[in-house]
Amino acid sequence: MTGQIIGTYLVAICLIIGSAFVVIGVVGLLKFNDPMTRLHAPTKVGTIGIGMLLLASMVQSVVAGESSFHELLILAFLFVTAPISANFIAKVHIHRKSCPPAPKPPRDDTWSTLKTPSDES
Amino acid sequence: MARVFQRLLPHPFLTLLLTAVWTLLQNEISAGMVVFGLILGIIIPWGTSVWWPDRPKGVRLGKMTTYCFLVLWDIVVANIQVAWIVLTVPNAKLKPAWIVIPLELRQPEAITMLAGTITLTPGTVSADLSDEGHSLLVHVLHTNDPDAVRDDIMDRYQRRLKEIFL
Q: Is the pTM of this model over 0.90?
């Protein structure tokens, strides 16, 4: 019985922390005024926010007696895909020049996003 | 013997990973499903090895595990830092910066892992690669000393990744 109570509190704490981080992520997205800085809040805070919500789901399933570990898989795929989508959004900003210009790379000619076919000829 | 092993298991780590993913997808551990996962884990790398010619020859699993835990810890710390910046630093005082990281890694897999790690950790997003792949462009959310951030990334992640990928 006590195990179940501790489990319930653990789930509640995880849910609160998770939702708090998600809310902070949204606040960051709305607050910052530069497209590149806006990118930071959701990519970072989203991972731990959703991670904590998934942890709560896992703890809940263990407490309820039918342990489920699908959540680990969701988390793994999230960690693999989140950087890629962030990277693509950043590339779009660089390409459309809607952010402060990036410094030139030291060894190569330019950044791959800015390299257009007309440069090559 | 070694060559037979090489042909059957072109990528032992991928085999293990696929077996683990299959078992997790089933959401219950039973011998039959683990064996089926193992069969998939052998067939898929064997069938797709043709399309992945320059794969890394191997990874050091021990170092990889330590690296994963280090990154997980950093993600937690990074989240709290970024949350603090979001809540306390006003827009006018925010100091975003671009930093350029010279890449010592050459394999695409290693560079992908470095870029992913950078995006998931302290206030940094990896934005772009230079056209011949010698440097990585990273955007920092808030820093007073961009050079220190660059040295930190190079020392903390790049040095470790160089040891992981053979």
A: no
DSSP string, B40-102: HHHHHHHHHGGG-TT--S-B-HHHHHHHHHHHHHHHHHHHHHHHHHHHHS-GGG---EEEEEE
Which pair of tokens denotes residue B108? 């695409």
Direct distance between the N- and C-terminal alpha carbons of chain A, in angstroms, rounded to an integer: 75
Which pLDDT value is given to residue B1?
60
Distance CA A80, CA A61 (A): 25
Stretch B3-28: mean pLDDT: 77
Token pair 């959540």 in the structure block, residue: A71
Task: Collect all residues from B whose CB is shorter than 8 A from any CB in A.
Answer: 21, 24-25, 27, 75-76, 78-79, 82-83, 86-87, 91, 94, 96, 98, 100, 102, 115-116, 118-120, 123, 125-135, 137, 139, 141
B117: domain range?
A: 61-164
| Confidence class for position A121, pLDDT limits 50, 70, 90 | very low
Burial of A83: CB neighbours in 10 Å, binned 0-12, 13-18, 19+: buried
Please check whether residue B17 lies inside any domain of the structure: yes
Same domain (yes/no): B70, B146: yes
